[in-house]
Amino acid sequence: MSTPTRITHLIGSTPWDGTAERTSPVFNPATGEQTGVLDLASAATVDEVVRGAHAAWQQWGSISLTKRTQVLFAFRELLNARKEEIAALITAEHGKVLSDALGEVTRGLEVVEFACGIPHLLKGGFSENVSTKVDVYSIRQSLGVTAIISPFNFPAMVPMWFVPIAIACGNAVVIKPSEKDPSAVNAVAALWAEAGLPEGVMNVVHGDKEAVDALLTHPLVKSVSFVGSTPIARYVYETGTANGKRVQALGGAKNHMLVLPDADLDLAADAAVNAGFGSAGERCMAISALVAVEPIADELVSKITDRMGKLKTGDGTRDSDMGPLVTKVHRDKVASYLDAGTEAGATLVVDGRVAEFDADGEGFFLAPTLFDNVTPEMSIYTDEIFGPVLSVVRASSYDEGLALINANPYGNGTAIFTNDGGAARRFQNEVEVGMVGINVPIPVPMSYYSFGGWKNSLFGDTHAHGMEGVHFFTRGKVVTSRWLDPSHGGLNLGFPQND
Ligand code: NAD
């Protein structure tokens, strides 16, 4: 067993040279081996990093759009060239298979490409002669230091939902990645420096609640973008806004796939397996509840079961379809739902504990699991399990299925599978969920649209990336201007009116 590598904060591109009061272990989930030891930032370290970021913003915020865009294009090229290296880091600490890790870097790259168009995205409006010889125009300016707090499940993509746009808009960034898989963010931060971003504009602090609280209360932090579980998202939103910050806090999910009787059941079964078990179900857009509208449930469950028998679970660097869960604690928690579901009366069709795993050591594995006859009061239905556990709920009609989805406290993603265009149109209109797929099981919007759920899946008004991201990371200002001439003279204490 090799000695765990020290992983520390990055102040600009410079590794922090202090001694951490507290550290946290980082594991390779496929082997169970501890590979890293992560410095956890104190409030004093966060303060030091935020002050450095604020000083850097004072230059970066007023640098020309041309120069900002040059950095973004250089960063795009570097990230594209190094995406395999970043993917390998993700697999080593998160556990997802390499192709999936590469996929998340590619989706992050799309946001960088969107941010490369920042000169166009920041164009304001101009109205000539709104009153006699008076013009009005709008501009958008950077906020200052923006904090980003990200979850373990997409260690590269979720940070890239925010960082490129925040930087393109002229802000400085302090990011606190998940303590479970911190290395990808450090590697990407190094690429920003290599791309020519001035020192101190992009910074990484590692840590836990202490670091998060320090960011949420720091007077120089102007905005917080958070992604994680719903209880923490709610806390971050409430604490951040109480401290005067602009906050977007994306929370947990329970995503439903509604399959109507007219759907192509082979394609629906493929989609359910891909969306239920990809990344071991550790995706905020994973399908965890499949609502089968009768009479198709028996046939659909049988097709899903057949496909599950072909999946290989193992080390993500090998020829596996699905990797391990991120930690032993999380694996054990997910596995405990298999007992809970059985005790509550659901039918355990495929038991993920009974499987062989292609890996060495003591990895945190659980193979794909399928429950049938799940009902809405069972904990396997109400809780966000965040693992490879798919629950089939049987419904008697479209209306019953829709009511189930709309009654759920989460509203991140959902999908309908049908060949009936009218039913699909009804669904997109009636479902109370932020991202909807029609025969698309994981409807993650492209970078030029915005990503975000409804209800307990997002606190705040603004979704991630797209134009909503540009608005989040800038403040609007409207200027009314005239160049004085004699027609503007005279005394008038009345409220200004246009003429
Ligand atoms: P998490 O809530 O445990 O952690 C998220 C971040 O919050 C991490 O950086 C973590 O260090 C920090 N944190 C943890 N405990 C904290 C505390 N008590 N106070 C302050 N900060 C704290 O989430 P996770 O387990 O890393 O990620 C999985 C969750 O994220 C799932 O619920 C998933 O649905 C959600 N998620 C949502 C989206 C979305 O777009 N809505 C996207 C990805 C993940």
Structural description of this entry:
With 499 residues, this protein is an alpha/beta fold. The protein has two domains: 5-251 and 457-479, 3-Layer(aba) Sandwich (Aldehyde Dehydrogenase, Chain A, domain 1); 255-438, Aldehyde Dehydrogenase, Chain A, domain 2 (3-Layer(aba) Sandwich). The chain is 37% helix and 23% strand. The chain is built from 16 helices and 23 strands. The chain has helices at residues 43-60, 65-81, 83-93, 98-115, 118-121, 157-168, 183-194, 209-217, 230-242, 265-277, 297-308, 328-344, 379-382, 398-407, 421-430, 466-472, and strands at 5-7, 10-11, 14-15, 22-28, 33-40, 126-131, 134-142, 145-149, 172-176, 202-204, 221-227, 246-250, 255-259, 287-293, 347-350, 369-372, 389-395, 410-411, 413-417, 435-438, 454-455, 458-459, 474-482. Strands 15-16-17-14-13-19-20 form a seven-stranded mixed beta sheet, sandwiched between helices. A six-stranded mixed beta sheet has the order 10-9-8-11-12-22, with helices on both faces. Strands 1-5-4 form a three-stranded mixed beta sheet, with helices on one face. Helix 2 runs antiparallel to helix 4, helix 3 packs across helix 4 (98-115) and helix 4 (98-115) runs parallel beside helix 6. The chain binds nicotinamide-adenine-dinucleotide (NAD). Nicotinamide-adenine-dinucleotide binds at residues 149-154, 158, 176, 178-179, 208-209, 212, 227-229, 232, 250-253, 284, 384, 386, 412, 453, 457.
